[in-house]
Structure to design on (934 residues):
């Protein structure tokens, strides 16, 4: 109960906030604020916020931050809450600032191939708005139907199409950011090339609201590519599928998507969605081309040849775009499908692409050593895999067993020059691995950046870096 | 002479450096060090260095930086000295650290499409080494035959192929950096996706050696594209050429290069290289496709149609790759050719791509208003133009007249949401425009980053930010 009691500081702050921003929607009752405590990391117990606010303008965000600075009240910026490392989870005594009311697409600039958006815009809504102009916003996290652009920017989110079009970072031209003292800056702009001064845009991307709060973004659009052609290949083992991926990479193939599922995931997806996948296979690859026409056929031919050379048991093609959409949807539902089999916690590691076969073997070894079910799926073309620990619902030791397994998986990834976070951020879940992966001196630099931009430590404290 | 006299601090430092690094090549005589004072900004009078050193290892760079920190001696990292904003010009009493002996290509990793290189590697040498493996390093500044990768990283250099493949930043996966206290860190790696912690890689790129010294880089290679098909289009005016560029951009065309030259530049290039360009034309576009075969033909057809719709007087195709190479070489020689017509100072501005016609008109207006010859060429497809002030060799007021003209050109670019530096860095030449373009609060953030990473102010002081 103690944590739920507003401190004197908190009471004063809330009164000042109400007085300064009478039109601001502010929730303070636990029954109202509880829904904003969690993100998709249910295993991390979040704190109890002092309050939850829903600003509707940049000026209002700036006013909130100024008041927070004045009263030394920390704040947690939050989008849709679909994050997977605890970047948006509530902090005891902090103000959670929900950005979803800043949800306008301010401009689609067809002549410059840019979109200017507020952070609360849903990723898929931007995609649809761009499509109306024959344009395309590439970054597509699996959560694209509900995650926000602000969350994507905060986490530098990936997605299925990253293998060809890059991650969220690669789609950003400029930002508007509210700093820790409430000042509002703009970085970048609509220029394709712009090198004056230090690049602040890239510093804020992926910083999880710990260095500033993004209130607007200028994003890069592309001409809409032709509809995808989709290939599925089944393999006797994940090792064979991994070899096919490595062969495609070194052949210089850059498909629009290159996704992998292991046997456990195939079974779970097929059980949940009844698509008729080959559940006897050890692994499946989905390879897609958006080159259109003969070029797409040629690209998938190279992919099919690589699969066959690696020992695929069957190579199929989606009959039409509807079937292809359905298969892609099945891949996006991998995590959800595994959740039907038990308590599923999705992890996120990356390795240099040539190491995908070895990393897949390492995950299998960890599963065996820990007598655990670990489903594997992910963006194999990027070397970015999602080992997913699936535990019985009544396993009281599940948390500790997962911790032990993930330590082994991270150790394997790091030994291959990999990363403990490919696209899901650092948040709370991964911060203890920072020194191990980046080195003490790099983390010292990160701390100095945090101190420089947020000297009072009020911006999402404890995320990315431990307090 | 005063500036040339080593101070007591300097004498002590040099003695300590010689003692600590007896094998380090160290020049201290003005006759030896003078060659390392300038970059390609002859109009900026550089300082006189305390000494010039040529380290041969990361450990030696670190030892030098540690000694500099201990003795409070500033240092200036330097590559080939082909920079265009004064990033590498000598500073009075500072040690110039020439990185050209760190010139090894450490690895071409075909399986992961990466190159690991030291900073002194010449851009074109990397390109050739990659080509031996059927791979391709995309960033290609006009100076690619002599500029170093380290300089490219320090300036976030552009080039002709940026319009399709992005700038230097977009080709970097990881760095090794010596910090201001001599600590050595690594950022990034060979992972296609890696989001753990703050992104330090992007902070160092483009920071001109003011935040750290890059001693190694992991760069992204691509499969070698097919040979270029090259189209030239001549227009009655730069305005018409600008309209063709805008039409191609909004049509979603992403050619491999999309370059512009105005009449003055066409005449200068043709006089210098005798290619037989249409010197009666008001402007010329060069458009290239590396899609290969029918796709390249189709792409250039769209480009040709856009040119004709914008009023081109003729559209030609290079007969073969030799002729195309020759034409591209002519474009790269634009600045050099203009130098044959007088003292030529190349500038570098960028605008959102739809604004290219307006920016070209603005430059013409400035030339008329100041009764100056301003040649214009550049990467029109990126909105990145190089207005080049060409002055009579005996014009004693040239410096002041250029300053007045460039102030007007920058004002015009900024009024269009443009930038005063598209790809040539900030250095000394552009730093006075930082506040105007980025805003005081953004520059305050940049200063706080500089203070955080270089608290003693020894790393290339006065570059990017005024001291």
């Amino acid at each position: 109960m103690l944590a739920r009691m507003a401190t004197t500081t908190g009471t004063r702050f809330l009164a000042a906030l109400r007085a300064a921003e009478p039109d601001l929607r502010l929730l303070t009752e636990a029954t109202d604020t509880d829904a904003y405590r969690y993100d998709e990391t249910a295993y991390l117990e979040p704190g109890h916020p002092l309050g939850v606010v829903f600003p509707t303008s940049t000026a209002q965000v700036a006013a909130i931050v100024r008041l927070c600075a004045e009263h030394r009240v920390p704040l947690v910026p939050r989008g849709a809450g679909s994050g997977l490392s605890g970047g948006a989870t509530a902090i005891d005594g902090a103000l959670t600032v929900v950005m979803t009311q800043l949800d306008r697409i301010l401009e689609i600039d067809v002549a410059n191939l840019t979109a200017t958006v507020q952070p609360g815009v849903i990723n898929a809504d931007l995609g649809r708005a761009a499509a109306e102009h024959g344009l395309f916003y590439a970054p597509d996290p699996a959560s694209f139907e509900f995650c926000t652009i602000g969350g994507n920017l905060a986490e530098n989110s990936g997605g299925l199409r990253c293998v060809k079009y890059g991650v969220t970072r690669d789609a950003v031209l400029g930002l508007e950011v509210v700093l820790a003292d409430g000042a509002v800056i703009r970085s970048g702009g609509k220029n394709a090339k712009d090198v004056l001064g230090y690049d602040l845009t890239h510093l804020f991307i992926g910083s999880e609201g710990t260095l500033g709060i993004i209130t607007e973004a200028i994003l890069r659009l592309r001409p809409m590519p032709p509809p995808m052609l989709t290939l599925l290949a089944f393999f006797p083992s994940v090792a064979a599928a991994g070899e096919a991926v490595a062969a495609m990479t070194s052949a210089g193939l850059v498909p629009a998507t290159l996704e992998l599922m292991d046997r456990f995931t195939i079974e779970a997806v097929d059980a949940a969605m009844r698509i008729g996948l080959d559940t006897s296979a050890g692994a499946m690859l989905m390879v897609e081309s958006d080159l259109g026409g003969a070029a797409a056929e040629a690209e998938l031919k190279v992919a099919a040849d690589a699969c066959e050379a690696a020992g695929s048991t069957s190579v199929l093609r989606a009959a039409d775009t509807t079937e292809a959409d359905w298969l892609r949807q099945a891949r996006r539902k991998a995590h959800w499908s595994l959740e039907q089999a038990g308590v599923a916690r999705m992890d996120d590691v990356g390795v240099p692409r040539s190491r995908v076969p070895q990393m897949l073997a390492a995950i299998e070894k960890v599963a065996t050593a820990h007598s655990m079910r670990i489903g594997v799926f992910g963006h194999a073309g990027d070397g970015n895999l999602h080992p997913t620990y699936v535990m019985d619902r009544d396993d009281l030791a599940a948390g500790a067993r997962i911790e032990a397994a993930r330590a082994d998986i991270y150790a394997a990834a790091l030994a291959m020059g990999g990363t403990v976070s490919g696209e899901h951020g650092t948040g709370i879940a991964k911060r203890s691995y920072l020194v191990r992966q980046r080195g003490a001196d790099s983390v010292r630099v990160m701390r100095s950046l945090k101190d420089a931009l947020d000297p009072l430590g009020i911006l999402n404290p404890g995320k990315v870096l431990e307090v």
